[in-house]
Amino acid sequence: MSAPVTPELLNALSEELFAAWQQQRTIAPLRNRAELTLDHAYRIQQGFVERRLAAGETIVGKKIGVTSKAVQDLLEVRQPDFGQLTSGMVVPDGGTLDVSKMIQPKAEAELAFVLGEDLVGPGITAVDVINATAWVAPCIELVDSRIQGWDIKIVDTVADNASCGMYVIGEAKASPLDVDLNLAGTVVKVDGEVVTTGAGAAVQSGPANAVAWLANTLGELGLPFRKGEVILSGSQSILLPVTAGQTLECIIGGLGACSVTFTNGSAQ
Amino acid sequence: MTVSDADVARLAAHVHKAQLDAQAIPKLTNEHPDLSVEDGYRVQVALQRRYLEAGHRLVGWKAGLTSQAKMRQMGVSEPSVGFLTDRMAVPEGTVVETSTMVHPRVECEVAFVLGADLPAKGCTVEDVLAATAYVVPAIEIIDSRYEAFKFDLPSVIADNSSSARFVVGGNPTRLETVDRTTLGLAMVKNGELLTTGASAAVMGDPAAAVALTANLVGRLGQQLRRGMIILSGGITAAFPVAPGDHVSARFQSLGVVDVRFA
Lengths: 268, 262
Prior knowledge:
Chain A is 26% helix and 28% strand. Chain A contains 6 helices and 13 strands. In chain A, strands 1, 2, 3, 5, 6, 7, 10 and 11 form an 8-stranded mixed sheet that branches. Chain A has a 5-stranded mixed sheet with strand order 4-13-12-8-9, with no helix packed on it. Chain A is globular, with a radius of gyration of 18 Å. The mean pLDDT of chain A is 95. Chain B has one domain (5-261): Alpha-Beta Complex (Fumarylacetoacetate hydrolase, domain 2), CATH 3.90.850.10. In chain B, 27% of the residues lie in helices and 28% in strands. In chain B, strands 1, 2, 4, 5, 6, 9 and 10 form a 7-stranded mixed sheet that branches. A 5-stranded mixed sheet of chain B has the order 3-12-11-7-8, with no helix packed on it. Chain B has helices at residues 5-21, 28-31, 37-53, 68-74, 125-131, 153-158, 206-219, and strands spanning 58-64, 80-85, 95-96, 105-114, 132-142, 163-168, 184-189, 192-198, 229-231, 239-240, 246-251, 255-261. Chain B is of the alpha+beta class. The interface between A and B is medium-sized, with 24 and 23 residues.
């Protein structure tokens, strides 16, 4: 029943994901279509992202996903995954986001890193990450899936650019030396009410560990990881629903806050 | 009044015995469906009297069911309070015998230590900030004496809001030197992360939970006094523990508190 994995198939799946993204619709999971490995999934992702770049976007950073044990258990993996952030995904801090332009968005609270130097793995440790980080900031990631009903296993989400949607980086920023990366409290509010809390330790025991994993993985794949790139280091919260009309705020202790207001097309 | 003073005394004796014997009992509302929250507190006050008459010392109070996570977990919609005695205080490093409890669970909280009395009525967050000498990290070991940890608000209040033991540790810290709403926490069991959270999970501000505790305790004719320790409520859901478990709460700024079980 499974098709043989050929370059043509991988290319066709990249095209299918890109088309689904463009047309804001979902497609059937990929994992049943062929015996896809994680390596195949990253090649599909690359094809998906290259199509977005060809359509005018640029690479602005990376995101790390699947960083908590709970999500790893759900996806039956023992490591994170990554996706590539493009210029069209940026929402300004305090701005609005028209959720009718997303497919099935959900929100997460994270710590974002911005590199002050290139970080070339393999061989990168968490200390190298801290040394190379220009600043960190609070972040809200709006994940989205081009796969029907979020019915994903690891190859589905990796191929789908790690379920990248949109993201907000706070204007509040600090040196990683001035924030408790692992224990600073992360508080998520919807319309001023606390809905969930967490801390950096939820992400690979500390978000710098996740960024080191990313640097090493990118190094092995020969992908660049450059000064100025933004890294969304992984969710510190549960997945939250995204509802038009609501304002979502992420506050990180000792660092500051960022927020976004969800609108619904012309209804705003 | 459907629940007489004699009923209250009998129910307090019943709960007291369940606590001493570590024996699960049906929730009180099975037998007394009319038991109100106020009746639950009448039973709790009678229970407190029994402990104090046995020579235990009242050392503080706890706020219970103050986080959305806890209220959701237990299926109740408002917080409660319970009293703390010297016998419930477990020094750090002590191994707690799970056999002395029915089905113990652990949760992590910020503990406030009072440098002045709090008003018993109309207590505000500002009053709490002014009266707090310092905060310390705490692990509360809760234990419902009700079968399967299932209860309603009047029953849990009568059972002293599931109070059992508590451990404080870490670093006594002046409240004004930390951001009391964003204190982060990692809860670890046997080296594995159980969960993370931040202090805003408790009513948006744990000092608000202390103010609420002061007002609830005031309604019982009692008062939060200088020197008392106030557990402001679990930041996380509560997790079951078993013999051999080692639980750590790692708090931003406040340090670490540990407890082990046998």
